[in-house]
Design goal:
The complex is a heterotetramer, with 2 copies of chain A (289 residues) and 2 copies of chain B (381 residues).
Chain A lengths: L10 E4 L4 H13 L3 E5 L7 E2 L2 E4 L2 H8 L3 E4 L3 H12 L5 E4 L6 H11 L5 E3 L5 E4 L3 E4 L8 E8 L3 H12 L4 E6 L10 H10 L5 E7 L4 H12 L4 E6 L24 H10 L8 H11 L1
Chain B lengths: L4 H10 L7 E4 L2 H11 L3 E5 L12 E4 L2 H11 L3 E2 L2 E2 L3 E5 L3 E12 L4 E7 L6 H7 L4 E5 L8 H10 L4 H20 L2 E12 L4 E3 L3 E4 L8 H5 L8 H9 L2 E4 L4 E5 L2 H13 L6 E4 L6 H12 L6 E8 L4 H13 L8 E7 L2 H7 L6 E2 L3 H15 L2
Parallel strand pairs in B: 14-16, 16-17, 17-18
Antiparallel strand pairs in B: 1-6, 2-3, 2-6, 4-5, 7-8, 7-10, 8-9, 10-11, 10-12, 13-15
Helix pairs in contact in B: 2-3, 5-6, 8-10, 10-11, 11-12
The chains are: A alpha/beta (289), B alpha+beta (381).
């Protein structure tokens, strides 16, 4: 079992004819992901990596029964690509693109509330169900199949934590990178809720960072709704206020909201152990299982 | 991207928001001539990206040439929280009876914009929000519909604004939202919006910050971008295209991915060291970029020790190793000790390429950070 | 019993300081309607017809517990007034205004789908629960209390039919004028559904007219979901195609949609007798009861 | 309000939609000089608000002066479905390889706009919709978001438009929607949108209808409104501000409220008569307005009998009675018999006021209509 993706997932890649789109399509297929189509306006009828390209996502859905999309479309056009995927009867859309204007994402966010499609990202590495499918740019080889769910706002930090887990033989059900932007589709709460309902997930690792209040909301959700144990990590303890730490969303505002301290306290209050180092997170998971 | 007050005011004025007469000045002479043409009293206001300019001495109200000269001499060239004041805005003083606050910003939690109005303008609005949240009327705005007229009115009436100026304030708020929306702003704000004795409203300050990610479609605003880095290092990082933040410590940090770099900073702190910077080389960095990153960190005179932490995904360990070799091989003597930790994609190939004479190699993040902290501590003894 | 309004309904009148607003407020109060407030921007603190005026509908809701609004606001500002009422936690908004631009109403229609408030109208006479409350401009004296529900796209045609009913002693639970515009809030189906759930309504009269397909949809709803018998009337049998018969919505398109014939057939197929004259409608109601 | 082809084309062209060269002409001489300046072949197209102008002989393609003169003589002044042609548009003929359809309209059932694209342009799109609905690609548009770029593309690709012109067609569709939205249109349509042999798209026709209720905020378009009434009676009704539709029968009908007037028409038909018109005096009509309505109906030479059916709500029976008296008392002899039925607000007062020598009074709608039908039948015997 897993959440959001498995080996039945039929993927259409939006922007498959671009450099990144093509490269990662090949990587995804090599990992075993069932990529069934590409979608690029004006490129219908072509083939990329042995996969047929359509002009619209709807055509890919009609012709190839795609049920998930991965979006490698430049920032200026990415919100439109997300809108298209939300209006094409997909179960899941994964937006890798970094640098989408925030106002575009606010509109996407509104539309998201009107449809059933899950959006993961943007500005995220995607997600992977080890041994079954990866949708995005994560390096497949570091993941292993198991019973730990992982959700993270960061890409490489996810790899680091997965590495610590895998080194101890702690495999993953699904690992989801939800992205470092201020406005994102799938939140911590959304992912945690899916893991809670997944019978194969026996523990969850949640990697948060400074900025916003998603981690605090997640803490509340864990306290009120979760039986599955959760271990946490928060990056950015040493970040000064008012400075954006790489991610558009990773900023402690001048008024003091979004601090690591507030997030760690909230998680601790919800019974979630928060490690000081990635290694300590792996320790916690071993104890929780 | 932050606009300066004088830039934001010109954008606001073009959109029809009343603003006082004003002129930009770069010298005491220019201040005097501006004051003369506007007419005393005038305010002399430092144009730097710093909050609380008034309290810090960056704004002075002057009545005559003598005071103007004094103020200009004091403010021009002063250091305001790390920024040197090169320009001031000379602005006609407003005879006000009331100071209001109006603003539009993105509420990240709600994922939608929010319009705000308060009678308690003229002071730090974040303190008002904390101490007296009821004093700020808020309207959440549906991003698809935009700010509706009834919402602008409701914010104004709920804030308790006098009925005599309510229409004008609500029209200023509506314009602020249009600007926010059309110009891809992250914030548009007027604090204070002054009410004059004759019942008019005037924007006595102006804040407009633009979403960096949307600058590609805001060419007019992109042109207004000015060099506003705090120091040469941040300027250099801007040129190299790195996400870089300078800090106070002595352990230089380079890594890939915001979360992992933040974590590396945190671990430096955890193991008793002090991070000198945040530097994210981004995804898929090639050798050149890696070399530039090392150059950046070595250029920081506070740095005594460097830790390089790469977990390869799109970024390949062999490219990182090449970049490190290139950067270090040009030195007769390595300026500061460099600890390298490579994991993920092509990490083994990288390890083989890496010139082990030039760097210290560690296998885990924890070990690499501990070693770098020790190096720094040794250097400062 | 009744639908939508009764003597507990607490009404705020938007546009109460205008000529029409003031006149009909007095008329409504004379009929016994519980008008508790007016709302006109900039007129807060005044009084009209003994009722306090507020600057916003929200203030009227907060201060006077209003739960329904009646909108007498000129067409240029009416959509904004409707939006305001939909965003003020009211149960019901009744828009009397005629001549609201259609694109404004399309936006209102979108917002309606996101809120719980019922909108009746625009371009309608309002609604009345005889003996309890009237919200709108209907002449109260022709109505009488009873067990017949009435829903109509037209104003004066409603009066005509009510007159025919009342003359035979057939009183009404509630009569709703849903309005003659192309895009309206409460549709025939909405009103029929409310009447179906009202235990006091033993029969319903539905007065349709040419244009659109609301009557056809109502016929389908009646066939599939209603136990309460319905009698129908359709105005505009003699209207030529392409000519707008007074109401913005009353037009048979060139392609032949919206004809009286199609509506009458659909209703007959759903077992609804459709009278040739208002008098025949009253005959049918007598038979159905 | 319907724009003429030449008006709609100028609006479309201003918005960047490619249109052929064209000039408006009111005489044969103007047609010839326009044709000369544009260059043959040209199309000569009647500018009247009538569908199917081509089939009805209102559009002719001409190759030279002789043909142009012939076409101008034939079309200028011709009667096209009741409208006299006063002006033609002389337009450069387009060398096309394909005729497409693009349009935006309000879908009343969905309560939202719909964008449509079809390869089957150049013919009546309503027949295509009936006979081959699959040939029209439809995109329903969220009124809050507007037409999104992906929707325009999807409509174009789903309609099977050639990939070579897909981008241009989708950009024309996007512009059509912007015009629809910004200008409060009820319909914007190009049929055909021609594809030239060089792969360009050109709007060979242009339809733009504006929501009458929104003209108040479209002053530029309101100025384009021209006298386009079919006859003097409809013009008169426009001046009086009545909702009026002229029909073929002989029973003149006056009432208040659209539904009730339609019902009165239907009853005239039901009782064997033929309605001469639809005339709604609206709500709250005063005596003057009632008199105007009677004047209107008497001005129709087909009318043999009049029925006046008022159910008072806001409209008061006494005002109606006064208006009827005023209108009729000026005649030595009443031109046509008038049956009056008053009900509702102040009906009894009205009955008392009404000069019973001038009118026939009935108590019910059914009786009133029957009497009026009988009057008409008597008159025509």
């Amino acid at each position: 079992m897993s959440i959001l993706v498995d080996d039945d997932t039929r993927v259409v890649v939006q922007g498959i004819t671009g450099g990144e789109g093509k490269f990662h399509t090949e990587q995804m297929m090599e990992y075993g992901t069932n990529v069934v189509a590409g979608a690029v306006p004006g490129r219908g009828g072509q083939e990329v990596a042995g996969v047929p390209v359509y002009d619209t996502v709807s055509q890919a859905v009609r012709e190839e029964d795609a049920d998930a999309s991965v979006i490698f479309v430049p920032p200026a056009f990415a919100a439109d690509a997300i809108f298209e995927s939300l209006d094409s009867d997909l179960d899941l859309a994964v937006a890798i693109t970094e640098g989408i204007p925030t106002q575009d994402m606010a509109k996407v966010n509104k539309r998201l509330s009107e449809v059933d499609t899950h959006l993961v990202g943007p500005n995220c590495p995607g997600l992977i169900t080890p041994g079954e499918a990866k949708l995005g740019i994560l390096p497949g080889n570091i993941f292993s199949s198991g019973n730990v769910g992982l959700v993270s706002r960061s890409g490489t930090l996810t790899y680091q934590v997965v590495d610590n887990l895998t080194n101890r033989g702690l495999g993953q059900t699904t690992a989801v990178g939800i992205g470092g932007d201020p406005i994102i589709g799938t939140s911590f709460v959304d992912a945690l809720s899916l893991f809670e309902d997944d019978p194969e997930t026996d523990a969850v690792v949640m990697c948060g960072e400074i900025g916003g209040e998603d981690e605090e909301q997640a803490a509340q959700f864990i306290a009120e709704n979760m039986d599955t144990p959760v271990a946490g990590f928060i990056a950015g303890r040493t970040a000064p206020p008012g400075k954006r730490m790489g991610h558009a969303g990773a900023i402690v505002s001048g008024s003091g909201t979004g601090t690591a301290e507030s997030k760690i306290d909230a998680l601790n209050d919800a019974g979630v152990p928060v490690g000081d180092t990635p290694e300590e997170v792996a320790d916690s998971v071993e104890e929780l299982l | 991207m932050k606009l300066h007050e004088y830039q934001a005011k010109s954008v606001f004025a073009d959109a029809g928001i009343p603003t006082p007469d004003s002129q930009l000045a770069e010298s005491t002479e220019e201040v005097l001539s501006a004051a003369e043409s506007i007419g005393y009293p005038v305010a002399v206001k430092a144009q730097v990206h710093v909050g609380g300019r008034g309290k810090a001495g960056g704004i002075k109200l002057v009545e005559n040439d003598e005071e103007a000269r004094e103020a200009a001499d004091a403010i021009l060239g002063m250091d305001l929280k790390g920024y040197t004041v090169g320009r001031v805005l000379v602005e006609g003083a407003v005879d006000f009876v009331d100071e209001l606050y109006v603003g539009v910003t993105m509420d990240r939690g709600e994922g939608k914009p929010v319009a705000m109005v308060s009678e308690k303008g003229g002071v730090d609005i974040e303190s008002v929000a904390e101490e007296d949240p009821e004093a700020i009327a808020r309207e959440y705005i549906d991003p698809a519909f935009g700010l509706q007229p009834y919402q602008a009115r409701r914010a104004v009436y709920d804030a308790g604004i006098d009925r005599e100026v309510a229409g004008d304030v609500s029209s200023v708020l509506t314009t602020l939202f249009s600007l926010w929306d059309d110009r891809d702003a992250s914030d548009t704000e007027i604090n204070p919006l002054m009410v004059t004795s004759s019942g008019e409203v005037v924007a006595a300050d102006a804040v407009m910050n633009i979403d960096e990610d949307a600058l590609f479609r805001q060419p007019e605003l992109a042109e207004m971008e000015e060099d506003s880095y705090e120091d040469d290092l941040e300027r250099k990082a801007g040129e190299y295209g790195f996400d870089y933040v300078r800090l106070d410590g002595d352990v230089g940090i380079i890594g890939n991915g915001a979360g992992l770099v933040m974590t590396t900073l945190d671990l430096v702190d955890h193991y008793g060291g002090e991070p000198a910077n945040f530097l994210d080389v981004g995804g898929g960095a090639k050798a050149d970029r890696i070399a530039n990153a090392l150059d950046m960190v070595f250029s920081d005179e506070n740095v005594e020790s460097v830790v390089f932490n790469i977990f390869g995904g799109i970024t390949r360990g062999d490219e990182v190793a090449k970049g490190i070799n290139n950067a270090l091989e040009q030195f007769d003597e390595i300026p500061k000790p460099v600890v390298v930790r490579l994991a993920g994609t092509n990490a083994e190939e990288g390890m083989e390429i890496l010139n082990a004479d030039l760097v210290q190699v560690e296998q885990t993040l924890e070990e690499a950070v501990q070693r770098a902290v020790e190096n720094a501590q040794e250097a400062s003894q």
